[in-house]
Task: structure prediction
Amino acid sequence: MTIRLSKIYTKIGDKGSTQLATGERVSKSNIRIEAYGTVDELNSVVGILRDIIEKTAVPSIDCNDIIQMIAKIQNELFDVGGELSVPSEVLNTKLQQVVQKADIERLEREIDAFNEKLPPLNNFVLPGGHLANSTAHLARTVCRRAERAVVKMSEEIDVRDQAKIYLNRLSDWFFVLSRELSRRHGVEEVIWAQNKKL
Result:
């Protein structure tokens, strides 16, 4: 099915309301809008991360596997946002694409595979050392905020556990990815200087 967006601005939301997938109108400050809006923001940051990894690539460093993983995650984040825009009483998980337990398990396998190649952590690390590392940390923190927004939404509105767990696991994925990107680029991790003792 092809969707054609022929008119981008509608002026319908000029007075601070927006329309859910069901046609119901709600305030733009609604917790549901905050939740899927933050997931959308996360997807934008992930797109930047993907571009940075591609643009900073050098022939000796192969990151095609990571780029493919990120492409899959971006599509899954779109699915999460779509799910959050539909009230649970009309959500049909057989017709609408949603993240499933298998997607969470895949993230866990990828985390474990990255982690096997990384040195053990003896201290907290700070974002930095390479632009891709810093951007992966940015994705991690926006992912945490998206998770908090979805958890807040779930306190008032029914949300499938898989959507919440997916975001929780994804933030861990971005943390381990930040370390893996530093490893592949041969960049030392920035270690937190406890008590500011450098």
Notes: The first helix runs from residue 31 to 55. Helices lie at 31-55, 64-84, 101-116, 131-154, 161-185. Residues 31 and 152 are 7 Å apart (CA to CA). The longest strand covers residues 17-19.
